[in-house]
Amino acid sequence: MHYVSLIVEFLRGRPSVVFWTAALAQAALWLLLPALFYSTPPGELPVVLAIGHEFRLGSYLGPPLAFWFGEVAFRAAGLFGVYLLAQACIVVALWAVFSLGRAIVGTRHAVLAVLLMVGVAAFNVPTPDFGPAVLAMPLWALALLHYWRAVGEGARGYWFLLALDLGLLLLASYVGLILLGLLIAFSLATGRGRRAFTDAEPWIAVLLLLIVVFPHAAWLKESAPLVLAALTESGGRDAAFSPAVWLALALILSHLGAGLLVVLASGWRGRRRERAPEIDRNPVERYARVFVYFFALAPMVAAAAIVLAANRLGPLERVGPLLLLSALAIIVAAGDRVLLYRERKASLTWLGLLAAPPLLIAGGILALPWTLAVDVKVGQPAGAMGRFFADNYQRRTGQPLGFVAGDLRLAALVALAAPSRPTVYFEHAPARSPWVTAADIRQKGGILVWPATDTSSAPPPAIKAAFPDLVAELPRAFARPVQGLLPLMRVGWAVVRPQPAPR
Questions:
Q1: Which long-range contacts (CB under 8 A, 24 or more apart) does 232-241 make?
Q2: How many of the other CB atoms lie within 10 Å of CB of 356?
Q3: What is the four-CA torsion angle of 151, 156, 161, 162, rounded to 10 degrees?
Q4: I need a labelling partner for 212 at 20 to 30 A (CA). Which of 152, 348, 481, 503 fits?
């Protein structure tokens, strides 16, 4: 008896249900994982929220929109709100790709593309670490969808939505410049694109785009040296690889899950004579094929060229926006009749790719401290640190904690967890926190923190140089939620008492 999986049956009869089930299931898993198992925000999220807390028009990390959105979500619902925002971004990106695919290859093949995206690691594993790259993904996808509506389908009203998408994308990440340049190049290289610019709507849309990005552009004019200096310092995560090699590896490794699904479902090196369910579609016009292939491959090529020329990763360290049409391009290339071989294995593999990463991460958080004595960063006691330092400062000075400085990650964690949400001073690079100075901390008071490996209270030389009158306290030891075989986490600290107001 031939086996037909439930996924295939629903794909044939209720493809939209399959899409929403897959998208929301993925979002739920990656929402519950950090909400239930992370005691400390992942990656750069504490720094993102420390910058967003100040609501500036830009920072050394780039445009402001992701920082603003993150701060608003945190104020509304705490870290759960930020994790929810991150997954909302992914669902919107998947919906935009689904809508674009539905217009080009039909609903059922569009669902196949979205299902294949579960195998692209960039769309799930790093998404709880909300930041510019995560916010850029839905805006990038919406821009491609609205460009197709405006040019591919001739619905000229979508030019205004495209301008808004691109303006917000440029306010989210400088990676948006790649898409803007590629859209211009594609329009000029195709007859349909050139004809579109004979209408008034594209030119009005250009004006709207300029209005959206003008405030940040004005800020960037004054702060370009700060941003360029930060980009110059970003040279990749691992010194063993050049930035270009690191980017190439990230692009390849992100597609391994999707490649495995393609191999299983294609029947490669299998029994091609066996019966297989067929998912068909209407033929795809040539312009649509060129559009999908171009915007699936050109962003990766352009990013690789930029990284190779600059020898820096910069905002391209997170590759998610570059891969949005990879799965759709595979489905377009698969032809008008897709035969799903090994459907049982392919279905189980897809479910494994969906559920295994969050389950493995959750298991690692619980097991690694007990087995290998690994200090899992997301398992550190941020809440206990924030409460201790805020309470201690309040008791000593009679004032709520207003400023935190020292080690950037520790300071950002303390600021995030402290009830008063203090401002973070980037002691290692004061120009990156123009909202406060060392003189402000000496005058108004604050807490300085740094990692301590033993009971020595000596602060790092850089902190001592910035605050020469500093008197360090004995390091404070904190127990992790899952302590295991690890030593207690020790944090060196000192209180800078506020100076009395002059009479």
A1: 232/312, 234/312, 234/313, 234/314, 234/317, 235/311, 235/312, 235/313, 236/312, 236/313, 236/317, 237/317
A2: 12
A3: 30
A4: 152
Contact between residue 493 and residue 473 where contact means Cβ atoms under 8 Å apart: yes
Q: Does residue 364 contact residue 358 with C-beta atoms inside 8 Å? A: no
In 376-422, beta strands by DSSP E: 403-406
Residue 185, amino acid:
A
Residue ranges of E strands in 102-253: none
Residue 200: both structure tokens together: 């008034």
Spatial distance between the Cα atoms of 158 and 166, rounded to a whole number of angstroms: 12
pTM above threshold 0.90: yes
Task: List own/partner pairs for 199-202 with CB under 8 A and 24 or more apart.
Answer: 199/156, 201/150, 201/156, 201/157, 201/159, 201/160, 202/150, 202/159
| Domain ranges within the chain, ordered by starting residue | 6-364, 380-496
Say how far apart CA 242 and CA 304 lie, in whole Å: 12
Short-list 330, 338, 339, 340, CA closest to 289: 330
| Buried-state track 446-469, b at ≥16 Cβ within 10 A, e below 16 | bbbbbebeeeeeebbeebeebbee
Q: Alpha-carbon distance 316 to 38, whole Å? A: 26
Q: Which amino acid is at 216?
A: H
Each residue of 328-347: pLDDT tens digit? 999 999 988 887 888 888 88
Tens of pLDDT, residues 236-259: 455 577 889 999 999 999 999 999
What's the confidence (pLDDT) of residue 456? 76
Lowest mean pLDDT among 193-202, 222-231, 304-313, 322-331: 222-231
Whether pLDDT at 218 is above 70:
yes
